[in-house]
Amino acid sequence: MKIVFPLLCLTALIVAPGCSKMVEKATESAIESELSKDGKNSNVDISDGGMNIQIEGADGAMQYAVGESASIPTDFPQDIPVEQSIKINMAHSNQGDGSFVIQGTSPKGFEEVVQFYQSSTVKAGWKEETVTRQGGKMWMTSMSKDERLLNIIIAAGDDGTSITQNTGEK
């Protein structure tokens, strides 16, 4: 999987609004070819609205989606609250290590989103380990439950409230 991040960065540089279908298909093929050298089966789909990558390997399946096609992974843990009005911009899941990342934006205000996560995570059985607050602009917390960690970052922005959640094993 060490090749995936550089390929994603390269893709982000190549894929821009107005990008031709030929460049999209060439980039898809190049990523799939590189992943196959690592013994991984993959399906890469790049379009003007985003990017989807699905990889199958010895360590399990991994999915990565950015843009309009991004959504909460179907196997996202049910005991992790997700603010209902969030528009997902990026989602990642890795069955091999049980990790998940979602990032999105909510039209709700910063304080309302923070209060939602403060109360809903505790109700779901998560224990707050650390919390950092930077005025009314950023709130970060690290929580634990069983053998898992949950990190949440909430930031006030001009276009709504940004929410990033990631979870994985300790």
Automatic annotation (TrEMBL):
UniProt name for this protein: Lipoprotein
